[in-house]
Amino acid sequence: MFVDESGEREYAPRTSLYFVYLGCVVEKKNVSSIEQEFKRIKRAYLGTEQVEFKSNWFRIPKERKKHYLIPFNITNTILREMTGEIYRVIKSSPITLLASVIDKREMREKYGEKAYSPSSWGYELLIERYQYFLQRVGGEGDVIVDKISGKKPWGRYPYMKLIKRVHVKMQKDGSTLQKVIVDRVKGMPSFKSSDTSNLLQVADFCAYNVMRQFRDYGGEWEEPTERYLRMYPFFREIVGKLHKGPGGQIQGFGIKKFPEKRKVGWRIKNG
């Protein structure tokens, strides 16, 4: 499982309301072929494989200009065509998406100063979903996390140390609430720079889309105003890749939001 995040990890003013971890699950036998598909896109549109696809570089005009338009002498029209091809490959590839979403405001309201770090809690919920997924398919797996430098997300534990600490706890003692022993995720998570992995770049795109879905329509996840969930356009592009329950439901399977106030049972039809 290739893991990336979206949103700020900290509880602080003027940070994102939601924090998301997303895992892109791929069988090892399919990793190489999917990597080759993204290398093909890069060669076709940019003339080289030595470039990173990052969601914010595609979305933010000044970053788009800096990283793609000027260096590769392409237009916004070409970039849009390339974006469409990226999502075509995501949708057609044997990829399953799992995500955890932390509502930081609700965490503070419910737990106050005792609220867990969004990063540690989000990682725990994601790995719990991964354990359930592996049990369902009868497999084992490992975890590769985007190597992000910088801030300490919580207290005295640096980012990677925090993740490893949570991982060991889940393998030894189980998850905090459900007491799920993580025995199908072997070894420790490894950390890899996203510029060396196209599948980490896919996780980056998809993590933002989940975060943006909740930023735009988060209130409807548990308190719907309509029969059908309104969707951020690029979330719609990936929603069919989310892991589904026996009845096609994604709530609690493909996406676990915490704190959880109400189960709605959103499910995918024809996807």
Architecture overview:
With about 270 residues, this protein is α/β, with parallel strands linked by helices. The chain folds into two domains: about 1-25 and about 95-260, Nucleotidyltransferase, domain 5; about 35-90, no CATH class. About 45% of the residues lie in helices and about 10% in strands. The protein has ten helices and six strands, in the order E-E-H-H-H-H-E-H-H-E-H-E-H-H-H-E. The chain has helices spanning about 30-45, 55-60, 60-70, 75-90, 105-110, 120-135, 160-170, 200-215, 220, 235-240; strands at about 1-5, 20-25, 95-105, 145, 190, 255-260. The chain has a six-stranded mixed β-sheet with strand order 5-4-1-2-3-6, sandwiched between helices. Helix 1 (about 30-45) runs antiparallel to helix 4 and helix 6 crosses helix 7 (about 160-170).
Mean pLDDT: 93
The level 1 CATH classification of the largest domain is Alpha Beta
Counting helices, strands and paired strands, the structural category is alpha/beta
Beta-strand residue percentage: 5-15%
Q: Give the topology string: H per helix, E per strand.
A: EEHHHHEHHEHEHHHE
- What is the number of independent domains? 2
Q: Going across the major beta sheet, what is the strand order?
A: 5-4-1-2-3-6
Q: Biggest β-sheet: count, sense, barrel?
A: 6 strands, mixed
CATH topology of the largest domain, by name, is Nucleotidyltransferase, domain 5
Low-pLDDT stretches are: 150-157
Query: What is the CATH architecture annotation of the largest domain?
Result: 2-Layer Sandwich
Q: How many strands appear in the DSSP assignment?
A: 6
Termini gap: 22 Å
Shape: globular
